[in-house]
Amino acid sequence: MRLALILVSITIYAFTVEAHDAHSGWSYDLYCCNGDGHTGDCQEIPSSSVRIVPGGYQLTLAPGDHRLITRKHIFKFPQSTTRRSQDSEYHLCLFPDENTPRCFYAPDMSF
Question: In the chain, where are the structural domains located?
């Protein structure tokens, strides 16, 4: 029984350590952060960079909109792959570089 409690504690700790948190306190999905909590580079992006289009979203990002962005990018996300933001803001995870969007989070009002 004691061994089981220790294993459960270690598992919970491992998931806590690996979670990458938004500034408002909720955690991005582990996949979005590449599972290590640091390299996924998830962060909030300006709502002005997001446009709702038929079937999903179009993001037009410029340097300063995300810490990895060094030049203009246009990304499209179908609504079916968009994840639910838990703080009424838009968030984008890029990995392994600025050319590769991994996860996009949109607030409830956008669904």
Answer: 2-110
Among residues 30, 77, 56, 91, the alpha carbon closest in space to that of 106 is found at: 91
C-alpha span between 100 and 1 (Å, rounded):
45
**Rounded-to-integer distance, Cα 79 and Cα 58, Å:** 10
SS3 70: coil
- Report the predicted TM-score, pTM, of the whole model to 2 decimal places: 0.77
How many other C-beta atoms are found inside a 10 Å radius of the C-beta of residue 105? Answer: 25
The pairs formed by 29-35 with CB atoms below 8 angstroms and a separation of 24 or more are 29/83, 29/103, 31/102, 31/103, 32/83, 32/93, 32/95, 32/102, 32/103, 33/93, 33/95, 34/95, 34/96, 34/102
User: φ, ψ for residue 78 (rounded to 5)?
Assistant: -70, 150
pLDDT in tens, 29-41: 988 887 655 555 8
